[in-house]
Amino acid sequence: MPSLSSILARIKIRLGSKHSEELMVYVVYGKQPSPFPDLDYIEPIIAIVASELECFAIQEKHPEIQVSWEARKVQNTEGIEMTAGSSLFLTHTTLLSYDEDDDGNPIFGIMESPQPTALYCSRDSAEQEAPDQYLHKVALGEINLRGVGELLE
Q: How many C-beta neighbours within 10 Å does residue 7 have?
């Protein structure tokens, strides 16, 4: 099996040579036991990666969770080159409450069953195309089993 550094080097070359109108990435989900008392499990987005090979590598490295993924086209990427670490913006129509803060207020997020509607290479594009949706900023290639990126207001 190729090393992670050689995989990342190939991805960087692949992404650098692709022009955005055809750029496809993989949204990776990780179903696992929930750390929150009101949920049996969570299924956060644990990565956005450039190749299906990376998806299989994540699945092999983390057999304790149920890894799944879907291919997504990145919208409005004309003239932009994506490399590992580049910011991407997911849009979501609905966020579910999954826990409460210390004051009893619901905490909303994408931990239970995220359903992104589109993926953009810039925040401006995402806000113009989906002004009434929630924004989720992620880094291409970042992997975090508790969920990648951050929700933006």
A: 18
User: Using one digit for the tens of pLDDT, what is the confidence trace for 114-134?
Assistant: 788 899 988 998 999 988 888
Structure tokens at 126: 């995402």
Amino acid at 115: Q
Contact call for residues 116 and 75 (beta carbons, < 8 A): no
Using an 8 Å Cβ cutoff, are 96 and 141 in contact? no
Report the b/e string of 35-67 with b at 16+ CB within 10 A. Answer: eeeebeebbbbbbbbbbeebbebbbeeeeebeb
Mean residue pLDDT of the chain comes to 81
Q: Please count the CA atoms within 13 angstroms of the CA of 73 that sit on its side-chain side.
A: 8
Distance, in Å, from the CA atom of 144 to the CA atom of 48, rounded to the nearest integer, reads 10
